Amino acid sequence: MKVRLVDIAHARSGDKGDTANVGVIALQPQWYEILERYLTRDRVKQHFSGVIKGDVERFELPNLHALNFLLHGALGGGGTLSLKTDAQGKVFSTALLRLVLDVPDDVARAATLPGVGPR
Amino acid sequence: MTSHASNDRVVRVAAGQGFWGDWLEAPRRQVEGGPVDYLMLDYLAEVTMSILQKQKERDPNMGYARDFIGAIESVLPALADRGVRVIANAGGVNPPACAAAVREVARKHNLAGKIRVGVVTGDDLLPRLDELLAQGHTLANMETGEPLSTVRDRVLSANAYIGSTPICVALSQGANVIVTGRSTDTALTMAPLRFEFNWRSDDWNRLASGIIAGHIIECGAQCSGGNCLFDWRGIPDLANVGYPIVEGHADGSFVVTKHDRTGGRISVPSITEQLVYEMGDPHSYITPDVIADFTTIHLEAVGTDRVRVFGIEGRAPTDKLKVSIAYKSGYKAVGTLVYAWPEALDKAQLADRVLRERLDRLGLKFDEILTEFVGVSATHGALAGAGGGTETPEVQLRVGVRANDKTTVERFTREIAPLVLNGPPSVTGFAGGRPKVEEIVAYWPALVDKSVVETQVEVLA
Q1: B331 and B244 fall within a common domain
Q2: Which of B21, B26, B142, B353 is deepest in the core (most CB within 10 A)?
Q3: ipTM (interface pTM)
Q4: What whole-number percentage of chain B has pLDDT above 70?
Q5: Lowest mean pLDDT, pick from A86-95, B244-253, B387-396, B410-419
Q6: Which of B317, B343, B365 finishes a domain?
Q7: Inter-chain residue contact A81 with B283, CB threshold 8 Å
Q8: How many Å apart are CA B319 and CA B448, to the nearest integer?
Protein backbone atom coordinates (compact mmCIF):
# COMPACT_ATOMS: atom_id res chain seq x y z
CA MET A 1 0.00 0.00 0.00
CA LYS A 2 1.16 3.52 -0.74
CA VAL A 3 1.28 5.69 2.36
CA ARG A 4 1.95 9.40 2.20
CA LEU A 5 4.41 10.46 4.88
CA VAL A 6 2.41 13.66 5.39
CA ASP A 7 -0.52 11.52 6.59
CA ILE A 8 1.45 9.68 9.27
CA ALA A 9 4.08 12.19 10.45
CA HIS A 10 4.82 15.81 11.18
CA ALA A 11 8.22 17.46 10.85
CA ARG A 12 10.43 20.46 11.49
CA SER A 13 13.67 21.47 9.81
CA GLY A 14 16.50 23.94 10.06
CA ASP A 15 20.14 24.35 9.14
CA LYS A 16 23.64 23.65 10.32
CA GLY A 17 25.99 25.16 7.77
CA ASP A 18 25.27 23.55 4.40
CA THR A 19 23.35 20.71 6.07
CA ALA A 20 19.58 20.59 6.49
CA ASN A 21 18.44 18.97 9.74
CA VAL A 22 15.01 17.39 9.31
CA GLY A 23 13.20 15.82 12.24
CA VAL A 24 10.23 13.57 11.42
CA ILE A 25 7.74 12.66 14.15
CA ALA A 26 5.08 9.95 13.98
CA LEU A 27 1.54 11.33 14.32
CA GLN A 28 0.58 8.22 16.34
CA PRO A 29 3.13 6.55 18.62
CA GLN A 30 2.46 3.15 17.04
CA TRP A 31 3.42 4.53 13.62
CA TYR A 32 7.00 5.15 14.75
CA GLU A 33 7.84 1.52 13.91
CA ILE A 34 6.66 2.11 10.36
CA LEU A 35 8.93 5.13 10.07
CA GLU A 36 11.85 3.25 11.54
CA ARG A 37 11.38 0.33 9.19
CA TYR A 38 10.44 2.02 5.91
CA LEU A 39 11.73 5.59 6.07
CA THR A 40 15.29 4.43 5.61
CA ARG A 41 18.37 6.51 4.94
CA ASP A 42 18.46 5.17 1.38
CA ARG A 43 14.78 5.93 0.79
CA VAL A 44 15.30 9.54 1.92
CA LYS A 45 18.47 9.84 -0.13
CA GLN A 46 16.56 8.65 -3.19
CA HIS A 47 13.73 11.12 -2.47
CA PHE A 48 16.15 14.06 -2.42
CA SER A 49 18.36 12.89 -5.30
CA GLY A 50 19.07 15.86 -7.55
CA VAL A 51 17.98 18.22 -4.76
CA ILE A 52 20.88 17.71 -2.34
CA LYS A 53 24.54 17.19 -3.20
CA GLY A 54 25.81 15.22 -0.22
CA ASP A 55 25.03 12.19 1.83
CA VAL A 56 22.15 11.49 4.24
CA GLU A 57 22.50 10.46 7.88
CA ARG A 58 19.68 9.05 9.98
CA PHE A 59 19.30 8.95 13.76
CA GLU A 60 16.57 7.17 15.70
CA LEU A 61 14.72 8.63 18.69
CA PRO A 62 12.22 5.95 19.74
CA ASN A 63 11.66 7.93 22.96
CA LEU A 64 10.20 10.79 20.92
CA HIS A 65 8.74 8.57 18.15
CA ALA A 66 10.98 10.53 15.84
CA LEU A 67 13.76 10.17 13.29
CA ASN A 68 16.30 12.87 12.64
CA PHE A 69 17.88 13.23 9.20
CA LEU A 70 20.93 15.24 8.24
CA LEU A 71 20.89 16.14 4.56
CA HIS A 72 24.37 17.26 3.60
CA GLY A 73 25.05 19.69 0.78
CA ALA A 74 21.42 20.77 0.82
CA LEU A 75 21.53 24.53 1.15
CA GLY A 76 23.59 25.97 -1.69
CA GLY A 77 26.58 26.61 0.57
CA GLY A 78 24.50 27.40 3.61
CA GLY A 79 24.04 30.48 5.78
CA THR A 80 24.83 33.77 4.14
CA LEU A 81 26.57 32.20 1.12
CA SER A 82 23.35 30.59 -0.09
CA LEU A 83 21.26 32.28 -2.76
CA LYS A 84 18.27 30.05 -2.09
CA THR A 85 14.92 31.31 -0.80
CA ASP A 86 15.15 28.55 1.78
CA ALA A 87 18.78 29.21 2.70
CA GLN A 88 18.16 27.95 6.23
CA GLY A 89 16.37 24.76 5.25
CA LYS A 90 13.17 25.74 7.03
CA VAL A 91 10.87 23.95 4.60
CA PHE A 92 12.86 20.80 3.92
CA SER A 93 10.46 19.46 6.55
CA THR A 94 7.46 19.49 4.26
CA ALA A 95 9.63 18.57 1.27
CA LEU A 96 10.39 15.31 3.07
CA LEU A 97 6.71 14.85 3.94
CA ARG A 98 5.99 14.64 0.19
CA LEU A 99 7.58 11.21 0.25
CA VAL A 100 5.31 8.22 -0.36
CA LEU A 101 6.18 4.98 1.41
CA ASP A 102 5.55 1.49 0.11
CA VAL A 103 4.22 -0.49 3.04
CA PRO A 104 3.02 -4.10 2.71
CA ASP A 105 -0.77 -4.23 2.95
CA ASP A 106 -0.87 -6.47 6.02
CA VAL A 107 1.58 -4.25 7.91
CA ALA A 108 -0.36 -1.12 6.94
CA ARG A 109 -3.65 -2.66 8.01
CA ALA A 110 -2.23 -3.88 11.32
CA ALA A 111 -0.96 -0.38 12.09
CA THR A 112 -4.20 1.22 10.81
CA LEU A 113 -2.28 3.50 8.48
CA PRO A 114 -4.20 5.97 6.36
CA GLY A 115 -3.75 5.08 2.68
CA VAL A 116 -3.15 7.38 -0.27
CA GLY A 117 -6.24 9.31 -1.19
CA PRO A 118 -7.86 12.69 -0.87
CA ARG A 119 -7.24 14.16 2.57
CA MET B 1 13.38 35.32 45.05
CA THR B 2 12.45 31.94 46.41
CA SER B 3 14.61 30.52 49.18
CA HIS B 4 17.20 27.80 48.79
CA ALA B 5 15.74 25.76 51.62
CA SER B 6 13.00 23.58 50.18
CA ASN B 7 13.72 20.69 47.82
CA ASP B 8 10.46 20.68 45.89
CA ARG B 9 10.51 24.33 45.03
CA VAL B 10 10.18 25.49 41.46
CA VAL B 11 12.39 27.94 39.58
CA ARG B 12 10.70 29.59 36.63
CA VAL B 13 12.78 30.62 33.64
CA ALA B 14 10.84 32.48 30.96
CA ALA B 15 12.00 32.91 27.37
CA GLY B 16 11.40 36.38 26.00
CA GLN B 17 13.35 36.48 22.76
CA GLY B 18 14.30 33.69 20.36
CA PHE B 19 16.57 35.73 18.11
CA TRP B 20 17.48 39.33 17.42
CA GLY B 21 14.38 40.64 15.73
CA ASP B 22 11.86 38.59 17.68
CA TRP B 23 8.59 40.02 19.05
CA LEU B 24 9.26 43.24 20.95
CA GLU B 25 6.21 42.61 23.16
CA ALA B 26 7.38 39.25 24.44
CA PRO B 27 9.75 40.22 27.29
CA ARG B 28 7.20 42.49 28.98
CA ARG B 29 4.39 39.98 28.51
CA GLN B 30 6.54 37.29 30.12
CA VAL B 31 7.22 39.27 33.30
CA GLU B 32 3.72 40.73 33.58
CA GLY B 33 1.67 37.66 32.67
CA GLY B 34 2.34 35.68 35.83
CA PRO B 35 5.09 34.56 38.17
CA VAL B 36 8.61 34.16 36.74
CA ASP B 37 12.01 34.21 38.44
CA TYR B 38 14.26 34.65 35.41
CA LEU B 39 13.82 36.17 32.00
CA MET B 40 16.09 34.65 29.36
CA LEU B 41 16.73 36.56 26.14
CA ASP B 42 18.65 35.03 23.24
CA TYR B 43 19.87 37.52 20.63
CA LEU B 44 22.76 35.89 18.85
CA ALA B 45 22.71 33.88 15.64
CA GLU B 46 25.77 32.66 13.79
CA VAL B 47 26.45 35.79 11.77
CA THR B 48 25.08 38.32 14.25
CA MET B 49 28.50 38.75 15.85
CA SER B 50 30.04 39.97 12.59
CA ILE B 51 27.29 42.55 12.08
CA LEU B 52 27.92 43.77 15.61
CA GLN B 53 31.67 43.81 14.99
CA LYS B 54 31.15 46.12 12.00
CA GLN B 55 29.01 48.41 14.14
CA LYS B 56 31.67 48.49 16.82
CA GLU B 57 34.33 49.43 14.27
CA ARG B 58 32.24 52.43 13.28
CA ASP B 59 31.47 53.38 16.88
CA PRO B 60 33.37 51.90 19.84
CA ASN B 61 30.25 52.29 22.03
CA MET B 62 28.24 49.96 19.79
CA GLY B 63 28.49 46.28 18.99
CA TYR B 64 25.66 44.89 21.12
CA ALA B 65 21.99 44.06 20.49
CA ARG B 66 20.30 47.44 20.80
CA ASP B 67 16.84 45.87 21.05
CA PHE B 68 17.87 44.63 24.47
CA ILE B 69 17.90 48.13 25.91
CA GLY B 70 14.26 48.61 24.92
CA ALA B 71 13.46 45.19 26.37
CA ILE B 72 15.09 46.09 29.68
CA GLU B 73 13.20 49.36 29.80
CA SER B 74 9.94 47.46 29.28
CA VAL B 75 10.64 45.08 32.20
CA LEU B 76 12.35 47.46 34.65
CA PRO B 77 9.44 47.59 37.14
CA ALA B 78 9.43 43.79 37.41
CA LEU B 79 13.18 43.77 37.96
CA ALA B 80 13.05 46.44 40.60
CA ASP B 81 9.89 45.43 42.46
CA ARG B 82 9.56 41.68 42.06
CA GLY B 83 13.16 40.56 41.88
CA VAL B 84 12.99 39.07 38.39
CA ARG B 85 16.50 38.58 37.04
CA VAL B 86 17.42 38.89 33.37
CA ILE B 87 20.03 36.84 31.52
CA ALA B 88 20.85 37.78 27.93
CA ASN B 89 23.62 37.26 25.41
CA ALA B 90 22.82 40.74 24.13
CA GLY B 91 26.37 41.94 24.82
CA GLY B 92 27.49 40.75 21.40
CA VAL B 93 31.06 41.90 20.81
CA ASN B 94 30.82 44.67 23.39
CA PRO B 95 29.22 43.51 26.67
CA PRO B 96 30.68 46.45 28.67
CA ALA B 97 28.98 48.99 26.38
CA CYS B 98 25.73 47.02 26.62
CA ALA B 99 26.02 47.06 30.42
CA ALA B 100 26.62 50.80 30.40
CA ALA B 101 23.50 51.33 28.30
CA VAL B 102 21.46 49.20 30.74
CA ARG B 103 22.70 51.26 33.66
CA GLU B 104 21.85 54.45 31.80
CA VAL B 105 18.27 53.29 31.32
CA ALA B 106 18.03 52.39 35.01
CA ARG B 107 19.30 55.86 35.97
CA LYS B 108 16.77 57.48 33.67
CA HIS B 109 14.01 55.71 35.60
CA ASN B 110 15.60 56.43 38.99
CA LEU B 111 16.19 52.72 39.52
CA ALA B 112 19.99 52.75 39.39
CA GLY B 113 20.19 51.54 42.98
CA LYS B 114 18.13 48.46 42.22
CA ILE B 115 19.98 47.26 39.14
CA ARG B 116 23.23 45.34 39.44
CA VAL B 117 24.59 44.50 36.02
CA GLY B 118 26.82 41.45 35.64
CA VAL B 119 29.11 41.53 32.63
CA VAL B 120 30.61 38.35 31.21
CA THR B 121 33.58 38.73 28.86
CA GLY B 122 36.43 36.62 27.56
CA ASP B 123 34.68 34.95 24.62
CA ASP B 124 36.08 37.45 22.11
CA LEU B 125 39.13 35.87 20.46
CA LEU B 126 39.55 38.44 17.69
CA PRO B 127 42.30 40.43 19.45
CA ARG B 128 44.12 37.16 20.20
CA LEU B 129 43.74 35.48 16.83
CA ASP B 130 47.32 35.86 15.57
CA GLU B 131 48.69 34.85 18.94
CA LEU B 132 46.55 31.69 18.89
CA LEU B 133 47.55 30.83 15.32
CA ALA B 134 51.22 31.39 16.21
CA GLN B 135 50.83 29.01 19.15
CA GLY B 136 49.69 26.31 16.75
CA HIS B 137 45.92 26.52 17.19
CA THR B 138 44.89 26.08 13.55
CA LEU B 139 41.21 26.92 14.11
CA ALA B 140 40.51 24.64 11.15
CA ASN B 141 37.05 24.78 9.63
CA MET B 142 35.00 22.00 11.23
CA GLU B 143 33.22 21.29 7.94
CA THR B 144 36.04 21.53 5.40
CA GLY B 145 39.19 21.01 7.48
CA GLU B 146 40.87 24.08 5.97
CA PRO B 147 43.14 26.02 8.35
CA LEU B 148 42.01 29.52 9.30
CA SER B 149 45.16 30.98 7.74
CA THR B 150 43.44 30.66 4.32
CA VAL B 151 40.95 33.41 5.25
CA ARG B 152 42.78 35.12 8.14
CA ASP B 153 43.00 38.52 6.41
CA ARG B 154 39.24 38.55 5.89
CA VAL B 155 38.16 37.64 9.43
CA LEU B 156 35.67 40.06 11.00
CA SER B 157 34.92 38.38 14.31
CA ALA B 158 35.92 35.32 16.32
CA ASN B 159 34.12 34.26 19.48
CA ALA B 160 34.27 31.15 21.60
CA TYR B 161 30.94 29.71 22.69
CA ILE B 162 31.06 29.86 26.48
CA GLY B 163 28.98 27.96 28.99
CA SER B 164 27.04 28.47 32.20
CA THR B 165 29.84 28.97 34.74
CA PRO B 166 30.47 32.72 34.37
CA ILE B 167 26.71 33.37 34.45
CA CYS B 168 26.44 31.40 37.71
CA VAL B 169 29.32 33.44 39.13
CA ALA B 170 27.55 36.68 38.25
CA LEU B 171 24.34 35.40 39.86
CA SER B 172 26.19 34.42 43.02
CA GLN B 173 27.62 37.93 43.17
CA GLY B 174 24.11 39.37 43.17
CA ALA B 175 23.75 40.56 39.60
CA ASN B 176 20.14 40.93 38.48
CA VAL B 177 20.84 41.77 34.85
CA ILE B 178 23.48 39.60 33.24
CA VAL B 179 24.90 40.54 29.90
CA THR B 180 27.16 38.12 28.05
CA GLY B 181 28.82 37.92 24.67
CA ARG B 182 28.78 34.60 22.82
CA SER B 183 27.29 32.44 25.53
CA THR B 184 25.56 29.39 24.14
CA ASP B 185 21.82 29.88 23.81
CA THR B 186 21.20 26.93 26.10
CA ALA B 187 23.49 28.19 28.90
CA LEU B 188 21.22 31.20 29.38
CA THR B 189 18.53 28.84 30.69
CA MET B 190 20.70 26.18 32.30
CA ALA B 191 22.77 28.65 34.37
CA PRO B 192 19.96 29.95 36.61
CA LEU B 193 18.73 26.37 37.25
CA ARG B 194 22.27 25.24 38.08
CA PHE B 195 22.75 28.24 40.35
CA GLU B 196 19.41 28.00 42.16
CA PHE B 197 19.65 24.26 42.76
CA ASN B 198 23.38 24.32 43.38
CA TRP B 199 24.09 21.56 40.85
CA ARG B 200 27.68 20.36 40.86
CA SER B 201 29.74 21.08 37.75
CA ASP B 202 29.96 17.30 37.13
CA ASP B 203 26.31 16.49 37.78
CA TRP B 204 25.98 15.51 34.14
CA ASN B 205 22.35 14.38 34.17
CA ARG B 206 21.04 17.54 35.80
CA LEU B 207 23.23 19.82 33.71
CA ALA B 208 22.03 18.01 30.57
CA SER B 209 18.44 18.51 31.74
CA GLY B 210 19.09 22.23 32.04
CA ILE B 211 20.61 22.30 28.56
CA ILE B 212 17.59 20.55 27.08
CA ALA B 213 15.29 22.98 28.91
CA GLY B 214 17.32 25.68 27.19
CA HIS B 215 17.08 24.00 23.80
CA ILE B 216 13.30 23.81 24.13
CA ILE B 217 12.77 27.49 24.96
CA GLU B 218 15.71 29.15 23.19
CA CYS B 219 13.64 29.76 20.05
CA GLY B 220 10.85 31.44 21.99
CA ALA B 221 7.38 30.65 20.72
CA GLN B 222 8.67 27.98 18.35
CA CYS B 223 7.86 25.45 21.12
CA SER B 224 4.55 27.00 22.15
CA GLY B 225 2.59 26.96 18.91
CA GLY B 226 4.66 29.14 16.60
CA ASN B 227 5.85 27.50 13.38
CA CYS B 228 4.13 24.34 14.57
CA LEU B 229 3.02 22.01 11.79
CA PHE B 230 1.11 19.62 14.03
CA ASP B 231 -2.58 20.63 13.99
CA TRP B 232 -1.57 24.12 12.88
CA ARG B 233 -5.13 25.19 12.12
CA GLY B 234 -6.23 24.22 15.60
CA ILE B 235 -3.63 26.24 17.51
CA PRO B 236 -5.59 28.99 19.25
CA ASP B 237 -5.01 32.73 19.29
CA LEU B 238 -1.53 33.03 17.78
CA ALA B 239 -1.94 36.80 17.83
CA ASN B 240 -1.67 36.54 21.60
CA VAL B 241 0.85 33.69 21.63
CA GLY B 242 2.36 32.84 25.01
CA TYR B 243 6.14 32.44 25.08
CA PRO B 244 7.43 29.38 26.96
CA ILE B 245 8.34 29.09 30.62
CA VAL B 246 10.42 26.32 32.18
CA GLU B 247 9.43 25.34 35.71
CA GLY B 248 12.62 23.69 36.90
CA HIS B 249 12.94 21.23 39.78
CA ALA B 250 15.99 20.32 41.84
CA ASP B 251 16.16 16.81 40.36
CA GLY B 252 16.59 18.24 36.87
CA SER B 253 13.09 17.45 35.67
CA PHE B 254 11.02 20.38 34.49
CA VAL B 255 7.63 21.37 33.12
CA VAL B 256 7.32 23.54 30.02
CA THR B 257 4.31 25.82 30.18
CA LYS B 258 3.14 29.36 29.40
CA HIS B 259 1.11 32.00 31.15
CA ASP B 260 -2.64 31.63 31.50
CA ARG B 261 -4.78 33.67 29.13
CA THR B 262 -2.23 33.54 26.34
CA GLY B 263 -2.55 31.94 22.91
CA GLY B 264 -0.57 29.22 21.26
CA ARG B 265 -0.23 25.69 22.58
CA ILE B 266 2.23 23.65 24.57
CA SER B 267 1.81 19.95 23.88
CA VAL B 268 3.95 16.86 23.40
CA PRO B 269 3.91 17.41 19.61
CA SER B 270 4.82 21.11 19.88
CA ILE B 271 7.71 20.32 22.22
CA THR B 272 8.88 17.41 20.08
CA GLU B 273 9.01 19.61 16.98
CA GLN B 274 11.30 22.00 18.83
CA LEU B 275 13.43 19.19 20.25
CA VAL B 276 14.32 17.89 16.79
CA TYR B 277 15.02 21.42 15.51
CA GLU B 278 18.71 21.71 14.54
CA MET B 279 19.42 18.77 16.82
CA GLY B 280 22.24 17.10 14.90
CA ASP B 281 23.35 13.77 16.37
CA PRO B 282 20.85 13.23 19.20
CA HIS B 283 23.27 11.10 21.20
CA SER B 284 25.80 13.91 21.41
CA TYR B 285 24.43 17.41 21.80
CA ILE B 286 27.75 19.00 22.73
CA THR B 287 27.91 22.10 24.90
CA PRO B 288 30.77 23.62 26.92
CA ASP B 289 29.20 22.29 30.15
CA VAL B 290 27.98 18.81 29.25
CA ILE B 291 27.06 16.47 26.40
CA ALA B 292 23.32 15.86 26.44
CA ASP B 293 21.71 12.69 25.10
CA PHE B 294 18.40 13.49 23.40
CA THR B 295 17.51 9.80 23.17
CA THR B 296 16.95 9.80 26.95
CA ILE B 297 14.31 12.53 26.97
CA HIS B 298 10.88 11.59 28.26
CA LEU B 299 7.85 13.78 27.64
CA GLU B 300 4.53 13.60 29.45
CA ALA B 301 1.44 15.79 29.08
CA VAL B 302 0.52 16.80 32.63
CA GLY B 303 -2.27 19.31 32.03
CA THR B 304 -3.44 21.96 29.61
CA ASP B 305 -0.38 23.59 28.07
CA ARG B 306 1.87 21.70 30.45
CA VAL B 307 4.47 19.11 29.38
CA ARG B 308 6.76 17.42 31.87
CA VAL B 309 10.28 16.58 30.72
CA PHE B 310 12.36 14.07 32.66
CA GLY B 311 14.82 11.16 32.60
CA ILE B 312 17.55 13.08 30.79
CA GLU B 313 21.10 11.79 30.82
CA GLY B 314 24.34 13.56 30.08
CA ARG B 315 28.06 12.95 30.17
CA ALA B 316 31.29 14.88 30.51
CA PRO B 317 31.99 17.47 27.82
CA THR B 318 35.03 17.57 25.55
CA ASP B 319 38.12 19.68 26.23
CA LYS B 320 37.31 21.95 23.29
CA LEU B 321 35.11 24.97 22.79
CA LYS B 322 33.41 25.75 19.51
CA VAL B 323 34.48 29.04 17.97
CA SER B 324 32.25 31.09 15.75
CA ILE B 325 34.33 32.97 13.19
CA ALA B 326 32.92 35.34 10.59
CA TYR B 327 34.83 36.37 7.49
CA LYS B 328 34.20 38.39 4.33
CA SER B 329 33.41 36.19 1.37
CA GLY B 330 32.46 38.29 -1.64
CA TYR B 331 29.16 39.82 -2.68
CA LYS B 332 25.67 38.77 -3.65
CA ALA B 333 22.44 40.23 -4.95
CA VAL B 334 18.97 38.89 -5.62
CA GLY B 335 16.60 40.35 -8.20
CA THR B 336 12.91 39.56 -8.61
CA LEU B 337 10.14 40.19 -11.11
CA VAL B 338 6.55 38.94 -11.14
CA TYR B 339 4.87 37.43 -14.21
CA ALA B 340 1.07 37.14 -14.48
CA TRP B 341 -1.44 34.82 -16.12
CA PRO B 342 -1.64 33.41 -18.71
CA GLU B 343 1.43 31.16 -19.13
CA ALA B 344 3.10 32.89 -16.22
CA LEU B 345 5.82 30.28 -15.77
CA ASP B 346 6.70 30.22 -19.47
CA LYS B 347 7.13 34.00 -19.42
CA ALA B 348 9.30 33.88 -16.30
CA GLN B 349 11.43 31.12 -17.84
CA LEU B 350 11.94 33.13 -21.02
CA ALA B 351 12.91 36.18 -18.96
CA ASP B 352 15.50 34.06 -17.15
CA ARG B 353 17.00 32.87 -20.44
CA VAL B 354 17.12 36.42 -21.79
CA LEU B 355 18.77 37.69 -18.61
CA ARG B 356 21.39 34.94 -18.61
CA GLU B 357 22.23 35.50 -22.26
CA ARG B 358 22.81 39.19 -21.55
CA LEU B 359 24.97 38.42 -18.51
CA ASP B 360 27.00 36.02 -20.66
CA ARG B 361 27.52 38.61 -23.37
CA LEU B 362 28.74 41.08 -20.78
CA GLY B 363 31.36 38.49 -19.85
CA LEU B 364 30.36 38.58 -16.19
CA LYS B 365 31.77 35.67 -14.18
CA PHE B 366 29.80 34.58 -11.14
CA ASP B 367 30.72 31.95 -8.58
CA GLU B 368 27.08 31.02 -8.64
CA ILE B 369 23.90 32.08 -10.37
CA LEU B 370 20.64 30.61 -9.13
CA THR B 371 17.18 30.95 -10.64
CA GLU B 372 14.06 30.09 -8.69
CA PHE B 373 10.43 30.35 -9.77
CA VAL B 374 8.56 31.36 -6.65
CA GLY B 375 5.10 29.86 -6.73
CA VAL B 376 6.36 26.78 -8.56
CA SER B 377 9.72 25.45 -7.43
CA ALA B 378 11.47 27.79 -4.97
CA THR B 379 10.84 25.80 -1.82
CA HIS B 380 10.65 22.16 -2.87
CA GLY B 381 12.37 22.28 -6.26
CA ALA B 382 11.81 19.25 -8.45
CA LEU B 383 9.98 17.49 -5.60
CA ALA B 384 7.03 19.81 -6.24
CA GLY B 385 6.54 18.41 -9.75
CA ALA B 386 6.67 20.38 -13.01
CA GLY B 387 4.01 22.88 -11.94
CA GLY B 388 3.19 26.01 -13.84
CA GLY B 389 0.32 25.01 -16.09
CA THR B 390 -1.04 27.79 -18.27
CA GLU B 391 -3.55 28.69 -15.55
CA THR B 392 -0.97 29.45 -12.83
CA PRO B 393 -2.05 32.89 -11.59
CA GLU B 394 1.45 34.29 -11.21
CA VAL B 395 5.10 33.35 -10.84
CA GLN B 396 7.90 35.33 -9.29
CA LEU B 397 11.22 35.08 -11.10
CA ARG B 398 13.97 35.23 -8.50
CA VAL B 399 17.58 35.31 -9.67
CA GLY B 400 20.51 35.43 -7.28
CA VAL B 401 24.20 35.84 -8.07
CA ARG B 402 27.36 35.61 -6.04
CA ALA B 403 30.90 36.75 -6.93
CA ASN B 404 34.08 37.92 -5.26
CA ASP B 405 34.12 41.08 -7.32
CA LYS B 406 31.68 43.77 -6.23
CA THR B 407 31.42 45.48 -9.63
CA THR B 408 30.36 42.19 -11.22
CA VAL B 409 27.46 41.89 -8.81
CA GLU B 410 26.61 45.58 -9.24
CA ARG B 411 26.44 45.15 -13.00
CA PHE B 412 23.97 42.30 -12.53
CA THR B 413 21.66 44.54 -10.54
CA ARG B 414 21.35 46.85 -13.59
CA GLU B 415 20.07 44.04 -15.82
CA ILE B 416 16.78 43.34 -14.00
CA ALA B 417 14.80 46.53 -14.59
CA PRO B 418 15.27 46.63 -18.38
CA LEU B 419 13.38 43.34 -18.63
CA VAL B 420 10.20 45.19 -17.68
CA LEU B 421 10.18 46.91 -21.08
CA ASN B 422 12.43 44.76 -23.23
CA GLY B 423 11.58 41.23 -22.04
CA PRO B 424 8.52 38.96 -21.99
CA PRO B 425 5.08 40.50 -21.25
CA SER B 426 2.71 40.63 -18.25
CA VAL B 427 5.52 41.62 -15.90
CA THR B 428 5.24 43.72 -12.75
CA GLY B 429 6.55 43.98 -9.23
CA PHE B 430 9.66 46.05 -9.73
CA ALA B 431 8.55 48.83 -7.43
CA GLY B 432 11.41 48.18 -5.02
CA GLY B 433 14.05 49.48 -7.42
CA ARG B 434 17.44 47.96 -8.20
CA PRO B 435 18.45 44.94 -6.13
CA LYS B 436 20.79 45.72 -3.27
CA VAL B 437 24.38 44.46 -3.39
CA GLU B 438 25.20 42.73 -0.13
CA GLU B 439 28.63 41.94 1.22
CA ILE B 440 28.66 38.30 2.28
CA VAL B 441 29.87 37.55 5.78
CA ALA B 442 30.39 33.82 5.92
CA TYR B 443 30.56 31.54 8.92
CA TRP B 444 33.63 29.51 9.87
CA PRO B 445 33.04 27.06 12.70
CA ALA B 446 36.17 25.86 14.49
CA LEU B 447 37.33 24.30 17.74
CA VAL B 448 39.82 25.60 20.26
CA ASP B 449 41.27 24.12 23.45
CA LYS B 450 39.18 25.10 26.45
CA SER B 451 42.31 26.03 28.35
CA VAL B 452 43.01 29.06 26.16
CA VAL B 453 39.66 30.76 26.86
CA GLU B 454 39.35 32.54 30.19
CA THR B 455 36.10 34.25 30.99
CA GLN B 456 35.81 37.25 33.30
CA VAL B 457 32.87 38.38 35.38
CA GLU B 458 32.33 41.88 36.70
CA VAL B 459 29.27 43.03 38.63
CA LEU B 460 28.58 46.76 38.41
CA ALA B 461 26.60 48.10 41.34
Answers
A1: no
A2: B26
A3: 0.96
A4: 98
A5: B387-396
A6: B317
A7: no
A8: 9
CA-wise closest residue to B183 among B217, B216, B218, B152: B218
B187-197 helix and B204-217 helix, angle to the nearest 10 degrees: 140
pLDDT of res. B361 = 98
Q: Looking at the structure, tell me whether residues B32 and B63 fall in a common domain.
A: yes
Question: Which pLDDT belongs to residue A116?
Answer: 62
What is the extent of the structural domain holding B182? 11-123+161-317
Angle among Cα B204, B210, B212 to the nearest 5 degrees reads 100
CB contact under 8 A, A12 and B227: yes
**Would residue B154 count as lying in a domain?**
no
Would you list the domain boundaries of chain A?
Answer: 2-77+87-106
Mean pLDDT of B428-444: 90
Indicate yes or no: CB of B277 within 8 angstroms of CB of A95: no
Compute the half-sphere exposure of residue A20: CA atoms within 13 Å on the CB side of its CA: 33
**Side-chain half-sphere of B71: how many Cα atoms within 13 Å?**
33
Residues B175 and B255 in one domain: yes
A79 touches chain B (CB under 8 A): yes
Contact A98 B380 (CB under 8 A): yes
Distance CA B19, CA B404 (A): 29
pLDDT band at B385 (very low <50, low <70, confident <90, very high): confident
Please report, to the nearest 10 degrees, the dihedral formed by the alpha carbons of residues B417, B419, B420, B424 taken in order: -160
C-beta of residue B203 within 8 angstroms of C-beta of residue B117: no
The mean pLDDT value for B407-421 works out to: 97
Give the distance from residue A116's alpha carbon to the nearest chain B alpha carbon, in angstroms: 17
Q: pLDDT tens-digit profile of B38-52? A: 999 999 987 788 889
Residues B79 and B195 in one domain: yes
Task: Please report whether residue B452 resides in a domain.
Answer: no
Domain A2-77+87-106, second-level architecture: 2-Layer Sandwich (3.30)
H or E element that contains B397: strand B394-403
How far is residue B421 CA from its own chain's centroid? Answer: 42
User: For residue B167, what are the CA distances in angstroms to B65, B68, B87, B384?
Assistant: 18, 17, 8, 47
Do residues B81 and B188 share a domain?
yes
Question: Which DSSP symbol is given to B277?
Answer: T
**Are residue B306 and residue B335 in the same domain, yes or no?**
no
What's the structural domain count of chain B? Answer: 2
Partner A contacted by B234 (CB < 8 A): no
Give chain B's largest Cα–Cα span: 77
Question: Residue A73: what are its φ and ψ, rounded to 5°?
Answer: 65, 40
Most A CBs within 10 Å, among B161, B228, B279, B331, to test the A interface: B279
- Across the interface, whether the CB atoms of B275 and A64 are under 8 A apart is answered yes
Q: Which amino acid is at B245?
A: I
Mutation target among A27, A68, A69 for the B interface, most CBs of B within 10 A: A68
Q: Is B116 helix (H, G, I), strand (E, B) or coil?
A: coil
Q: Give the separation between CA B457 and CA B461, rounded to whole angstroms.
A: 13
Which amino acid is present at B396? Q
Q: Are residues B96 and B60 in contact, defined by beta-carbon separation less than 8 angstroms? A: no
